[in-house]
Each structure stands twice: as structure tokens, then as C-alpha cells.
Amino acid sequence: MNQNKSCDPCVNDMLVQAKQNHIETAWDRYEQQLPQCGFGQLGVCCRVCWKGPCRVNPLGNGPQRGICGADAHTIVARNLIRGIASGTAAHSDHGRHMAKTLLEMSEGEAPDYAVKDQKKLADIAAKLNITAEGKELKELLREIALTTLADFSRQDESIPCTWLEKTIPESRLKKLIQLGIAPHNIDAAVADIMARTHVGTDADPVNLLLSGLRSSLADYTGMALATELSDALFGTPEPVVTAANLGVLKEECINIAVGGHNPLLSEFICDMALELHDEAVQAGAAGGINVVGVCCTGNEVLMRRGIPLATNYLSQELPILTGALDAMVVDVQCIMPSLGKLTECFHTRLITTMNNCKIPGATHVEFHTQTAKESSREIVRLAIEAYKCRNQDKVNIPQQSSTVIGGFSAEAVVAALSTLDAADPLKPLLDHIVNGNIQGVALFAGCNTPKVMQDHAYLTIAKELAQKNVLLLATGCGAGAFAKAGFMTMEATDKFAGDSLKAVLRAIGESAGLNGPLPLVLHMGSCVDNTRAVSLAVALANKIGVDIDQLPVVASAPECMSEKAVAIGTWAVALGIPTHLGVIPQVMGSSAVVDVLTEKVKDLTGGYFMVETDPVQAAQKLYEAIQARRKLLGI
Ligand code: NFS
Ligand code: SF4
């Protein structure tokens, strides 16, 4: 049995089957990698130039410098910020894609897209100081697109990115400008890191880390604009009931999984699944087409359309093993290359769609926003074709899934609160925080890693904090963990929330017409949607006239692994949030870097990293961080 690999019973079931059928998964490949390289784990291996690789002996009894003379502090800092740069590039590319689509729409070149949420568009215009009144939609889209794209092209270093400036408290912006870490241009922040980490350039660990902070804020900027523009195009999420885990696959349907991150594609796959229903039935699938989500694309379509979530990052191979998945449609990021090889053993078609993400073994159907419907139709038809090759005798779907109440955008949270106080919706939330019914807010974000039992730390920390009356928010694959485990339900609130938190969640839920409490963990969306949580925190901070680093708000990434997660964790710290990491970051080879990230940065931004691999201890530390903030606020 593989009981120690995941908390998710579906995963453990499927891993047994995988073993019986000699199918390799990420967990097997992890074991094959053991023991992992100690130099790499500590971050002291440098491959920046071809004189290397060089490695510094962390025990002090071997070489202490690379050939060029770089010591452990320089090497660790360089490695770390190169990761942040990659994360920033990935998130922001997603944001750029959104902005460019708006521009294409304004030029009539993306005819299949529409603005589903006019109010959000108007809010965005107001936020960016663009007058909407009297303007035609095309003109407004163009102005918003150009203002947004200026955050990728501005050359004047004294002007911070607009999407940063307009979405954080004034006092925070001032602080970031003073520190010289408010980015003026997202792409420039990435390029700056690549330039300064070239051999023989920046060797000062603090200077390197500051540029990492700047890039992470560029990452934040790219995420904020990606989320907001997606909402305008596809709708701002509202509470929705759906389900999560492999049981959402349906034997009588053509099952299509959408994985990756980009709603520009997945929204149309969902539309086409409806449009091509009759073709699916003709092909023999009585139930039509069933779209399910994986990873963050899964979160995007869950939030906006109530599409069920099949699984989160680490178990993305397993839907294929059910024999019931007809197509896996992916765009960019967090897609395991193993899927190509794996789908060769099944009837499942792996379909890649983006020019910058091709995988050997996949069918590539390039997706263009100009022809969104046409490409999506082609993709869904490939799934129908693949279905015809499905062997029903081999289908084995674990009959397990949990109910999920998702869709908690900041707007949805405010709307629910406004049923308590229409004139001043944030007041009830603030009052409860002040009087201690809610002790603080914890945001869970990030990935999965086979280094720990999948989902376990998320669930453990959440239970501990809920019991102590901390309000819980989640995004990304963390949200996936909670969704699968039934933590996004009213029942979970009744079971795990402390008394005062339970009463608050019940009062809000009932007045909002949910016939019960809000779920224990509020699903705020995909990883780029972490900015939804920030916008809620900023609204609270602005209301009481404090900065984010004074709020009893913490973040936790118990299973972080991607460079995007490193970037997110870093901007959380840059914005002033105590941020927990549940896996050991690859920086421990430099005491100086560790000291900056866990201590010295407190004096600069008010935020800091804490590393704790034991989930119960982690919950305790997060709670203590909340209490320290409460004390300073005098509440
Ligand atoms: Ni976030 Fe989403 Fe998941 Fe991690 Fe990857 S899918 S963007 S990076 S693994 S949470
Ligand atoms: Fe070695 Fe310096 Fe080259 Fe890194 S940059 S590989 S430490 S010589």
C-alpha cells in the first residue's frame, strides 16, 4: 500500500493500481531520485557559467568559493532570484496574454471573446483612472489594454507599474519606492535579474535579494492584472457548488480534462463541450461531454463555471489511469512532461495548445485567440475521436468525490458581507476581527510535492487554525487539496471551526441565503488569483488606515515547489505578510540569505519567511504571528 504518499484516498487507490500495472508516476520517479543532491538542496551548486558547475562545501571542509570566487551567499542568492525571475515571467506572460487579447478585441481581431462582466470592466477603468463614460466598448478595451501593456514596456524607472500602484495601500507603495523595489516594468524586472546574475556581475547577496523582491512585486503586478482582466472577460466568480476528486469522471460521458493555467483557452473548451453535445451522443457517449479540471485551469473553470476538479498538481497523471479520460487539454505551466509518455499507454489524447509548451507524445493543436472557437472545436472533436477507442472494460473510476462550494472572489465575499451591512459591508468582518471572533486570516497557496505526504500539511494546518478561529482562504493546488478533502463545505465548518468562527461563518452564510454557514475554507481561485486575497486585505487595511504589515494576516505554502510559488511567497513577504513554507527552501547553504529572508527583511517590509516542516508546529507559528500583529494593533 502507498498510504504514506497522499492523504487523498483516490490517489492511494490509483497508486496501487499503477504499481500492479507497472505504470510509473511522479512518486516513483521521486524515489528514483533519492538521495537528492545535497548541494542542490542547499542551493550551493552554481551553473551560471561553463567554467562550472561549481559547488561550495557547506561543512566548511572543502572549497568555499567557485572558480570565479563566488561564495555560498552569492551563489544561493543568485539561484534563488533566478527562480523568482522565472516565476515572474510565467505569471506575467499569462497576464500579457490577457492584455493582448483585450487589445485584439478592440481591433476586432478576437471576435469570439466578449466582456461578460461589464461592471468589472468599469471598475478596472476606474482603478486605472480611465474615463469610461461616453466611450465605445472598443475604445475602452483599447485604453485598458494599452495602460496594462505599459506595465510591460515603460522605460522611466521613476514611475512604478500602474497595476501595482493602484492595488496596494499608499503607505506600502511609498515604502516599496523608498526601498527601490517598486518595479516600473514587469519584463525589465525579469531581465534585470538575468543581467545581474550573469557571471561576474552582482555578487552582493543583499543587493541580489532586493532585486528578487522587486521581481516578485512585478510578479504580483502580472498576477493582479491577469486576474482582473480575466474576470472582465469571463465573469467575476460568485459562489458555486460543484465537486472534486476523481469520482467526477463519468463513465457514460466523454471526459475532457483541462489542465494548466490559461482561461483564454479553457473557457472555450467548456463552451464547445456544450455545443458538440449531440456529436458526443452520436459517438456513443449517452451523457455527452464532461469537462473536468486539473491544477489551476481547473480552479479557473471551477470558480467561474462550477466545473468539477479532478485533482491537483501531483496527481495529474492519475485521471489518465482511470481509463475513462478521453483527452487532456493543456496550455502552460505545471504540466508534467510524463503525460506524453503515459498517454501512449492509454487511449487518452494529450493535446498541447500553446506554442511555448509542446510535449513529446502529444498532439499539438495550436490555439490562437483570433480563432478561439474554431481551435476549441477541433480540440473537442479530437476528444470525441479518442473516446471511440476507449475500452470500457478497462474503465476504473474511483467512486469518490467531495462537494465543493467555491467561487469566493473578493467581490463575492463583500457581496455576502453586504447582506449583513449593505452600507458598509467590510464593517461586520472588521468588527469580528477586532472583537476576536475572527482572530486573523490565513491564505493557503502553492503546490504539491512528493517530498511530503500529499495534501496532509494543508489539512492539518487548516484544522488547527480553524479551531483557533482563524478565517481560511485558499488558492491554487492548496485549494485543490481542500476541495478534494471536503473542507470547502458547510459540514467542514461545523466540524472544524472554533465556536466564534463558526458563528460568524453561519451568520454570513445564512444572511447571504446559503442556508448554512460559509464553507470552512473559502476557494479564491487559481494561483494568479492570490491577488484576490490581497485585494480583500488591502480593502481592510485602507478602511482602518493601516498598512498590510499591520493586519493579522498570514500566508502558508506547505507544499510549495514551483518557481511561481517562490515568486508569490516573496511578494507576500514584500507586501508585509508573514509567510510559512512547509518544505525546506533551496537556500539553506547561505546563513546570510537565510538571515535576510527570515529576519532582516522584517525591518524592510514587515513581512518574513518562516520555515516549518511539521504542520502542527507550523500552525502554532502562524497563530503566534497573528497574535503578535493583534497585540501591536491593540486588539
Ligand atoms: Ni500555482 Fe497553479 Fe499548482 Fe503550484 Fe502549479 S498549478 S499556478 S504553481 S503546482 S499551485
Ligand atoms: Fe563557478 Fe563562478 Fe561560473 Fe558559478 S559563475 S559556475 S561559481 S565560475
Question: Mind explaining what this structure looks like?
Answer:
This protein is of the alpha/beta class and 635 residues long. It folds into three domains: 163 residues, Substrate Binding Domain Of Dnak, Chain:A, Domain 2; 149 residues, Rossmann fold (3-Layer(aba) Sandwich), CATH 3.40.50.2030; 232 residues, Rossmann fold (3-Layer(aba) Sandwich). Helices cover 50% and strands 11% of the residues. The protein contains 26 helices and 16 strands. The strands form four sheets. The chain has a six-stranded parallel β-sheet with strand order 6-5-4-7-8-9, sandwiched between helices. A six-stranded parallel β-sheet has the order 13-12-11-14-15-16, with helices on both faces. β14, α24 and β15 form a beta-alpha-beta unit. α4 packs antiparallel against α9 and α19 packs parallel to α26. The longest helix is centred in the N-terminal third of the chain and has 35 residues. It is globular. The termini are far apart. The relative contact order is 0.12. The model has no long low-confidence stretch (mean pLDDT 97). It binds FE(4)-NI(1)-S(5) cluster (NFS) and iron/sulfur cluster. FE(4)-NI(1)-S(5) cluster binds next to α13, α20 and α24.
Q: Topology, please?
A:
Blueprint: H1 9-20, H2 26-33, H3 38-42, E1 45-46, E2 54-55, H4 72-106, H5 118-127, H6 137-150, H7 162-165, H8 170-179, H9 186-196, H10 205-234, E3 240-244, E4 254-259, H11 263-275, H12 277-282, E5 289-294, H13 295-305, E6 309-311, H14 318-321, E7 325-330, H15 338-344, E8 349-352, E9 363-364, H16 372-387, E10 402-406, H17 410-418, H18 426-434, E11 440-444, H19 456-467, E12 470-475, H20 476-484, H21 490-496, H22 499-511, E13 521-525, H23 530-544, E14 553-557, H24 563-574, E15 578-581, H25 591-605, E16 608-611, H26 615-633
Parallel strand pairs: 4-5, 4-7, 5-6, 7-8, 8-9, 11-12, 11-14, 12-13, 14-15, 15-16
Antiparallel strand pairs: 1-2, 3-10
Helix pairs in contact: 4-6, 4-9, 4-10, 4-24, 5-10, 9-10, 10-24, 11-16, 19-26
The structure holds FE(4)-NI(1)-S(5) cluster and iron/sulfur cluster.
The site of iron/sulfur cluster has 14 residues, from loops.
